[in-house]
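User: Show me an example of a complex going from sequences to structure tokens.

Assistant: Sure. Here are the input components:
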Amino acid sequence: MVDRIQRYADLAVRIGANVGQGQLVEVRANIEHAELARATVAAAYRAGARYVQLNYSDDVARRTMIDLAPDEALSWSSPALLSFLEALEAEQGASINIVGDPDPNLFVGADQARLGRARPSDYRRLWLRLVAQRRVNWTIVACPTPGWARQIFGEPDLERLWQLVERCVRLDESDPVAAWEAHLERLGDMASLLNERAFDSLRYRGPGTDLMVGLMPSSRWHGGPSETSFGRRHVANMPTEEVFTAPDRRRAEGRIRSTRPLALNGSLVEGLELEFRQGRVVEVKADRGAGIVEAQLGIDPGAASLGEVALVDSRSRVGATGVTYFNTLYDENATSHIAFGAGFAFTVADPDEREEGVSRSAVHTDFMVGGPEVEIDGLTGTGQVIPILRDDVFQLS
Amino acid sequence: MVDRIQRYADLAVRIGANVGQGQLVEVRANIEHAELARATVAAAYRAGARYVQLNYSDDVARRTMIDLAPDEALSWSSPALLSFLEALEAEQGASINIVGDPDPNLFVGADQARLGRARPSDYRRLWLRLVAQRRVNWTIVACPTPGWARQIFGEPDLERLWQLVERCVRLDESDPVAAWEAHLERLGDMASLLNERAFDSLRYRGPGTDLMVGLMPSSRWHGGPSETSFGRRHVANMPTEEVFTAPDRRRAEGRIRSTRPLALNGSLVEGLELEFRQGRVVEVKADRGAGIVEAQLGIDPGAASLGEVALVDSRSRVGATGVTYFNTLYDENATSHIAFGAGFAFTVADPDEREEGVSRSAVHTDFMVGGPEVEIDGLTGTGQVIPILRDDVFQLS
């Protein structure tokens, strides 16, 4: 287990964040991830970090806040959070975020409106700006926990979850670094093929879904490695199986139904359906958890617009495991997804289009809309309809 | 156990920090103290906190830093730490610090000079200023852990340690609040008796000890409850069994030998002997851990002067347990102690004496010098010698 954790930490530090000599580094984790967090701190120092800040969070204390704190505490951003991010930006630092629900039942029974609002808004907004402006070389990895395993399998089969995670992040390969290089290149090729077509919009059709999403002329698809504004390569999600861009926040029409459950703020949203008019959500339905989504959409004006469209095909290792992970990092890499809230400004080349068309918000919530029964087409400016995904197979070449 | 932890958290919040309606509150803890930390967060919200920041630290990651980080990381203060303390000061907030070594062997074999320097200097300096200027209503409590119990008893007898802790913090009383009020009043009376005498200096004599420490004309003894500059009462240490003041940093002559082991920066210092000339340490000896003390004394010019003298008599509940706790909060309340490094400015009334006579430093390290074999006298300005402690019994009345 020590070796497994060490290899995972090294992967997150070397391929994920790609920590460089002399960098200020943040490691975020729940206290239940302590073993992996500690190994990550050590790996970061070995990679040359000048200082590693280990920021632990505690979901039990978070539930207490949701239950007991005054209303204004829910969205308040502690100066401890803000000032550290400002330092990360000023120093061109690195960030490694370890996720993975310690206890899937922790937020059961919490007030949904308070749960939906319980995020530090200024901090989220600042973080999303750093991401959008590529100020930090960052990565997210997930740490198996007994609670997360129980949520997936109905029993705390930690070993089984570890093996799935290792498969998805290519630690089952004899040379994970080479496997990652080949994989990132393939995702880059998919993005290039989409960029060559310069689609005007995307169309999603399937059960409960008929949605048109407009792109901007200078919307560029990204996939594989990211690069910071100061030229440092990193892999922002591990696993990553997606190609993505920012849509035009003003152009979304129709309905879309989620195809997988969404773990959100520690609670579960199932059967989510959103209706869009002129780019904005006008109706929210869900079998479960609609209130959490509604609370998020009310956080600021940008929350109700689309910020991201992402395509994932059947070659996804995450999708191939056939497992629903109840974890966005994994589930969004199993199948195509979209996000309401903030868009990634760096995906739009033209400054005017970026300013007017990319959504800005403290919210960025991905939800899964792909699957073999969902057809995704690209529409060109001249009205041509080009299939992009059929039966989850990528159609462009 | 849940009830025991809840009662302890309530005591720390209500009698210790005395959290008030609308206060910003910090809870500091090791991740191994999570259960008590979580209960403390809940108790603070119930007491009216507007926001509770839970700051976890991790000694395993700290050991990694000491082993692997570049030299300048050791004393660096993260902006996350600094900005939160600044907010606490600006808002007149509260702080609850939960201590208690999770693993007594964690720092064995670490480089002693690096261990001694491994403290965030600017942060420590800021905290000590807030304490000295009484900007925050704060308390320190200790959380029993299996590792701490093993260090004391040689086995991880957690239940035995809990019972000792409950005895020392008066949770074994049917009405702990009333017991605390009576106790705090007694400590206040001791301080008054010392203040009436207005001693010019103290003299310590015992095996290996013959030390004179000068006081200032306006040095005032404190004991029992503290009060912030904004008028909020709190109990800074739980347990507290001491009366204390700031000596004149320029007046200490002779030798003093510690009477108990000192747990310092996660390591152990035993048989410590310090020699003072003109107020400053000129020689350090120890059976074990001298290097850590030497490293601390080198941190800044103020570290080598005395910052505190504190008297504890045989009525101490901590002392009465007959246990060495290897934890400063407990051991310093078992017997009389002194501290090198920063002094508490608020104990000196005259601004000029405060400015010139109170030590300023990022260091404040208490060590135990009391016991039945140590005689402590007060010397008056006219040369009278008045016994203060004999056989650990307080002599003034």
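The lines above are the inputs; the final block is the predicted structure for all two components together. Chain A has two domains: 2-168, 176-394.
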